[in-house]
Amino acid sequence: MKIGMVSLGCPKNLVDSEVMLGLAQGEGHQLTRDAADADVLIVNTCAFIDKAKQESIDAILEMAEHKKNGACRRLIVTGCMAERYREELRAEIPEIDVVLGTGEVPAIVNALQASGSGPQASGLIQLRRSNGEAIQPDARSPQPEAPTYLYGADTPRLLATPRHYAYVKIAEGCDYRCAFCIIPKLRGDYRSRSVESIVQEATSLAARGVKELLLISQDTSFYGIDRGERGGLARLLRELNRVDGLEWIRMLYLYPTTITDEVLDAMAECEKVCKYIDLPLQHAADPVLKRMKRPGTRAGYDKLLERIRTRLPGVTLRTTFIVGFPGETADDFAQLEHFVETTRFDHVGVFTYSHEEGTTAHSMVDDVPAVLKKQRQAKLMRLQKKIVAGRQRERVGERVRILIDGPSTDHELVLRARLEGQAPDIDPVVYLTDCDPSELNTGQFLTAEIVSSREYDLVARPVPVEALTT
Predict the structure, then answer these.
(1) What is the largest CA-CA distance in the chain?
(2) In what side-by-side order are the strands of the sheet with 248-251?
(3) Which end of the chain is more exposed for a tag (fewer CB within 10 A), N or C?
(4) What is the pLDDT of residues 193-243, one digit of tens each?
(5) What is d(CA 204, CA 269) in angstroms, rounded to the nearest whole number?
(6) Is the pTM of this model over 0.85?
């Protein structure tokens, strides 16, 4: 059969999608990018916040239209939303044949063939269909046991990323219980893969042309602790650093209280490990952090960031914050502003708090008005934009190593590239001009000179080979 997929949400969900596609291909099914041509459509959903849930509902309904009016004979819904609302989805959207939660990834093989029948339940969530019709909950289905699935190096996987980089999930689940987060209920407790399994997968990916490896999990710095392997992440980095063919090894989602000196030392010693730390701090005011059930404090964050910058000179720091958490006062937000202004992060993402059922915070009063949440978000991003714009202007004239990601949508003679301090999809980019795109390849590294900046982004041109010795 021809299989089509819509993958939504984070890179961790993308890896699940790639595994499902690999399993389907291994069974002899063909893959198609054209939903209208697919015999089976799979929607791998996200349910982290209301916006993500609405996007998932819209995608399911769009694919359901293909089942009613096109070649599609089967509609399968998977992922976090399926884990959270499996019975409600089946009841409210009868076009769905099979619902698979986050721990049922291997079941996709049978789901492609099995007939869709199962228990019905009323109610979904407070979302709306595409036509504006409200979907209201009447009852909640019981939550199943927490997922335990974890893929391995031998699991078939079809990469959906460009050929030169790939995400590798080094662990699944989370042991923290942050008040705003539903992930532990959707993904289960933390469970690490073995170093050997990850290195085996990395070696295989490198042999297929992958140059950049992005290590992901809910808490990458917790890696190995669940297995009793203190220092496991440092060991993993050193092992991956020896894999032939890899050029960059990048870690995402590091938790502030589990970044050890061993990890920082390994990052400093391993030439392939990017000096890049993605550190979701969520806030900087102690009262808010306490209500969020985050173990960090403002003083602890200051000490951690000083330690990181001392041990890793020139490190790129990325973080995310949530504004409008229940009880956040004007003074709390002012502390967050001051923290951003004085710390001067390289990359910052700011999200408005989403009042999610099933989380501890849902029992709190969502007392910060939506308009004020948006205002605080915009104010923080204006501050960060000013910080970054000034820093980018200072880089003009600097020679840098870049990785070409492919053509730019701006102009046919411009290429899109990244620095070591820029992760794909979430960070600014480098636009490479004054070059012949036909002579440069996607996935190629080269030395370039920064010639100008565009607020967040940079503009560069290749440095001629003969000039590299001068």
Answers:
(1) 72
(2) 165-169, 212-216, 248-251
(3) C
(4) 999 999 999 999 999 999 999 999 999 999 999 999 889 999 999 999 999
(5) 24
(6) yes
